[in-house]
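Hey, resending since the last one bounced:
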Amino acid sequence: MKAHTINSNGITEGVIWKQIISFFFPILLGTFFQQLYNTADAIIVGQFLGKEALAAVGGGTGTAINLLIGFFTGLSSGATVVISQHFGAKNEERVEKAIHTAIALALVGGLIISVLGYVFTVPLLDVIGTPDDVMPLAVSYMHIYFLGGIPVVMYNMGAGIFRAMGDSRSPFYFLLASCMTNIVLDILFVGFFHTGVEGAAIATVISQLLSMVLIFITLMRRKDSAKLRIRKIAFDRRLLTQMLMIGFPAGIQSIMYTISNLIIQAAINQFGTDTAAAWAGWSKLDQIFWMFINAFSISITTFVGQNYGAGKIDRAKKGVRTVTLMAAVSTFVIEAGYFLVGRYGLMLFITDSAVLEIGVEIMRFIVPWYITYIAIEILSGAIRGAGKSMIPTIISVVGICILRIVWIYIVPLFDTSIIGVLFSYPFSWILTSILFIIYYFKGNIYSVASNQKRLR
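The structure tokens again:
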């Protein structure tokens, strides 16, 4: 039986800023609740189990987890771009095949994460110099967390599928349900049953499994060509190739980002458990900025993808300008908020006064530099939305990862303070922003010929 016409959730028509706002806010809220997964772990673990347990579920542990999770999230971004371009071009057959290819990719990717994550937990924690008093707790947490490899990859892929078709609300509802489940289970396992960091990890896995189930049910109940049919889950070679050409460089970029952060984490760990715990606490509060800027990036990737697929190049360019302005205003407001009430936010995670003061010092240095990062996230999202992934990856790897690593190995020879280590962030952000601005305006990213070839 022929499927119904795909339901219209496109963002190729209407007032640009209104379309972006309506698409952006569910993503922002979804990102907020996604961050609550580990944040809830950190608050509850920090309050009930102390600073060693806090360091075990946050900071370096989160960075080590992102080394694998981030790569497959990058792969899912390739699927999002491919689906959004075919959706914008109203190619129903390609949308259907792309969705089933994306689900197959997520299943395989999640299985790989579970195996690699479990096997390489200890080496990863060794590489970042995890303190001895934290190591056993961190190993237990990560081993359980990686059992949920398939659900976490499937959520990211499923969210990308819905967003590619202009639906940013469904992923938010799924995440809201799973996050609330996570918080309740955290309190139950850690606070009442006293299961330690293992209970926090189990709560996270169960919650991620719930989000995966909700995604499958919703896709299977659709009445259009985007309906998921289990028997059709398989790889379409051409579409998989397109996804990997866009997503694989993004995944490599994510790994390089994480490696550079792991090196920074190792440098921070050398300052002792207090500084490691302060960094773990700040890393949670720091997510407020990143969830805003990431939501803007996801929005512009989908916006450019659909409009590029529809051949509306001028609309795509106007969208980039609009989102850049929105991101700049949001960043200034967030920076002011950190300086006004940031100390109190850190107190949610940190009860030790010495650790708190280190956290405040870190916050006051990092926050003013956020504004220099905007161009990286917005322009790279737009460029990938147009189907170009290799050059943004090269720029990011060189401008952020390699330069940051060089900084970490050279500057501490002259400046042994925590600020000397942290300055690697604004240094790399500024240089990389300049490179992205040059490429966006000089790189002919909106090539009509390449667009027509991709959509044939």
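The CA atoms of residues 408 and 421 lie 6 Å apart.

Sorry for the duplicate.
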